[in-house]
Amino acid sequence: MVHRRMPKPSEILPLLRPAPIRWDATERRLARAANIADLREIARRRTPRAVFDYTDGAADGELSLRRARQAFSRVEFTPSVLRDVSEIETGRTILGKRSTLPFAFAPTGFTRMMHTEGESAVAAVAQEVGIPFTLSTMGTTTIEQIVDIAPDVRRWFQLYLWRDRAYAKDLVQRAADAGYDTLMLTVDTPVGGARLRDVRNGLTIPPALSLRTFLDGARHPHWWFDMFTTEPLAFSNLEGTDGTIAEMINRVFDPALTMADVEWLRGAWPGTLVVKGIQSVADARRVVDAGADAVLLSNHGGRQLDRAPVPLELIEPTVAELRGEAEVLVDTGITHGADIVAAIALGANAALVGRAYLYGLMAGGKRGVEKVVQILRGEIERTLALMGVTRVDDLRPEHVRIRPYG
């Protein structure tokens, strides 16, 4: 039988403590985000539809991206209990140098379109955290500006080979002169993918003010204000970029790229060479034989060939084929720290994160990118502890398996 009584004021008062008031709007937004999915939703509300879809979308029916994420959902860990996990070490040696976390920031194009701080914010966060940052050929900040913004960040440069090899050679030399230690050659863009969201949204570079975008802009005045009151949006390393993304790719990039170009680049670049966009074990073998120091298993975030292989599922056979001759990196579909843990357990040396930090950038600029790192770090540490593993370096294939479909 329940006996009721009136509570004493001393018992009620401690329960009436109001939550601290957050006067800063960005801080309030980011405080509500518990994971990357929350940041994605904030980004969706904060940016014009065409901008969000450029980041969020993929090619054709977006099957490649969906399958990549489904593959991570099929991961099953095999935890071991009664282990001392009071201290967790998240550091990882990536391409010969230590990183505080087992991932790097991937190259992304037209980054200032998502937020005016763009690559400046991303590179600054990478420097603060101690992880590599990759600048894209399609970036909106120059090779040299990144050095001024984040002089101590570990800098990688992602390269598309152009029809004009002289200009590509100039970019490579500029990257070397500016202290970039890694060159990442992307090989999965002989032509532009069918990014249908961009087509339907009428996205052009630079963005055009159609009636539709004008009406959408009324719902996102802060974004348009930032765009009109800062430096014009443009690809900092390209000229003549008017038109759609696909039109620009088809006009500028070289569809005649072959293995001979990999060999030429190996001779021209003094640092570490990574080939990005590898989607088969056979191609991984070919580029390593041509001199690549690492392969990046990637289907371009699902933005090029739809129905492409799932990078996560390529890790084990690629590692088995290369037998330590080159490092194996992976991207596409990574939205949780456990995804990174799974990739490394399967044999990858590290992961690259792209969309996730762009969601953070759209949600809150530099502080949003910091929030992404905070979330991913916490998820990595928690996943390792619950698995009974104290160091990222101790992850092995026996710690994970991929459940069958169904």
TrEMBL record:
Residues 28-405 form the FMN hydroxy acid dehydrogenase domain. Glyoxylate binds at Y54, Y160, R195, H300, R303. Keywords: Flavoprotein, FMN, Oxidoreductase. The keyword Repeat does not apply. It is an enzyme of class 1 (oxidoreductase). InterPro entries: Aldolase_TIM (IPR013785), Alpha-hydoxy_acid_DH_FMN (IPR012133), FMN-dep_DH (IPR000262), FMN_HAD (IPR037396), FMN_hydac_DH_AS (IPR008259). It comes from the Bacteria. The active site is at H300. Its cofactor is FMN. GO terms for molecular function: (S)-2-hydroxy-acid oxidase activity; FMN binding. Its EC number is 1.1.3.15. FMN binds at P107, T108, G109, S136, Q158, T186, K276, S298, G354, R355. Belongs to the FMN-dependent alpha-hydroxy acid dehydrogenase family. PANTHER family: 2-HYDROXYACID OXIDASE 1, S -2-HYDROXY-ACID OXIDASE-RELATED. This is (S)-2-hydroxy-acid oxidase. It comes from Pseudonocardia dioxanivorans (strain ATCC 55486 / DSM 44775 / JCM 13855 / CB1190).
